[in-house]
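A reminder from the course coordinator: this example appears on the midterm review sheet, so study it carefully.

Given structure:
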């Protein structure tokens, strides 16, 4: 008999079989093998079925979070015109439109002698001012309705039934060809986690962007009051609609769901393609800061992995690009006293019918030195980059030796000095020879 100190169940402390050992074999299992309580999967299958249920729950939770982040039902933009966030911009836009209309009326009244053109301009300004004021108050409601429609369409296309991407993933986790393969389950969960991270990036760029463009809508629509110039409104609508319809770019993977359905590994491939499309969506759809955010995500991936497939995928989502900036506004250029007097003299000379000669200008020495000092940092960096690129293109010093078994080509030999002219041997005469 073993004493209490020699209890063999103590060897199972910290494992699921410890309670089973003390229960006297009433916790389930077969052949006296300790195991956790059965989760409804039959004798001996509790651990596997429990883990399977947890994985499916995790996958379902990830899919719901991805849906909520990529195309949420509720946006950050105000839903009504009397919102505390939108009301100040609405007040400013309406007063700006009315001010522009009053200026147009005053100008038309002062130049009423021109007749029909001024009357037509005043009519255009009146009509477009009414359109602008009415449109300012309707923007929040229209954006809210459009956002709900996009969210419903996205949910219908990606998680409604088995023919959608997320619906196929959920079904394949239950009865797919590799639903019992732990490696396949690990791959699909990892792909869902990556998709969740990129979806969070989409959410954090898309929602603030929609909020900003909705709040700026009164200021943009007020530009219509001058006479109907719609260029700024078109640009604003293009940016806003691009942000709102950006999730629809994932519809490109919808036709391939039925072709690769039934296998979790192929579903993971489609998820990677969807991740690439979401990066493209950030790159092209988010105005102003989208390319930089996408490049930051690419740099984060490339600095943390050496897998060539992962790097190729992120490079497909974020292509290489160059940025163009506006030239900084430097000090204004003024003429020296002598040059200013000469230019005025040329104007007077031309008034008398003369043709003054051109006087090309240049910066003074002090001004040129100041300009060089201002651009010194940019010039030094460009010079260092050019020097580095030139050094990488030049072959190393030892590489100029010819390969073995091949004689070097002889160089050009110096031309010999011309020999002094000498007469040929024998007499030479110019006359006819005598026989």
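Designed residues:
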């Amino acid at each position: 008999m073993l004493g209490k100190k020699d209890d063999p169940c103590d060897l199972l402390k910290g494992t699921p079989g410890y309670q089973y050992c003390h229960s006297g074999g009433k916790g389930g299992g077969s052949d006296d093998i300790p195991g956790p309580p059965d989760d409804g999967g039959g004798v001996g299958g509790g651990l596997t079925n429990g883990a399977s249920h947890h994985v499916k729950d995790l996958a379902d939770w990830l899919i719901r979070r991805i849906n909520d982040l990529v195309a949420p039902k509720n946006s950050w933009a105000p839903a009504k015109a009397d919102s505390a966030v939108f009301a100040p911009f609405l007040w400013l836009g309406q007063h700006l439109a009315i001010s522009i209309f009053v200026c147009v009326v005053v100008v038309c009244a002062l130049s009423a002698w021109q007749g029909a053109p001024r009357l037509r301009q005043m009519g255009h300004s009146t009509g477009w001012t009414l359109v602008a004021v009415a449109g300012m108050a309707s923007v929040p409601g229209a954006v809210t309705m459009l956002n709900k429609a996009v969210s419903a369409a996205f949910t219908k296309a990606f998680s409604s039934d088995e023919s959608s991407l997320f619906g196929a993933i959920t079904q394949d986790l239950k009865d797919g060809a590799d639903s019992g393969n732990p490696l396949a389950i690990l791959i699909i969960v990892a792909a869902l986690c990556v998709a969740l991270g990129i979806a969070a990036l989409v959410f954090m760029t898309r929602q603030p962007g929609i909020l900003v463009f909705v709040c700026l809508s009164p200021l943009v629509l007020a530009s219509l009051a001058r006479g109907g110039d719609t260029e700024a409104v078109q640009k604003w609508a293009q940016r806003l609609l691009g942000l709102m319809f950006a999730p629809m770019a994932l519809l490109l993977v919808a036709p391939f769901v039925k072709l690769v359905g039934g296998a979790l590994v192929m579903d993971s491939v489609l998820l990677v393609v969807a991740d690439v499309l979401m990066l493209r969506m950030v790159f092209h759809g988010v105005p102003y800061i989208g390319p930089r955010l996408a490049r930051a995500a690419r740099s984060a991936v490339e600095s943390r992995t050496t897998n060539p497939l992962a790097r190729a995928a992120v490079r497909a989502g974020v292509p290489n690009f160059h940025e163009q900036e506006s030239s900084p506004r430097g000090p204004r250029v003024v003429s020296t006293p002598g040059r200013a007097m000469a230019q005025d003299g040329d104007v007077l000379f031309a008034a008398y019918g003369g043709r003054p000669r051109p006087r090309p200008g240049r910066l003074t020495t002090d001004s040129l030195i100041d300009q060089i000092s201002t651009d010194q940092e940019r010039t030094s960096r460009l010079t260092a980059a050019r020097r580095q690129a030139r050094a990488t293109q030049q072959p190393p010093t030892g590489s100029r030796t010819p390969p073995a078994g091949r004689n070097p080509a002889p160089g050009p030999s110096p031309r010999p000095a011309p020999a002094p002219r000498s007469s040929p041997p024998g007499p030479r005469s110019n006359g006819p020879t005598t026989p």
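The CA atoms of residues 34 and 395 lie 71 Å apart. The chain has 15 helices and no strands.
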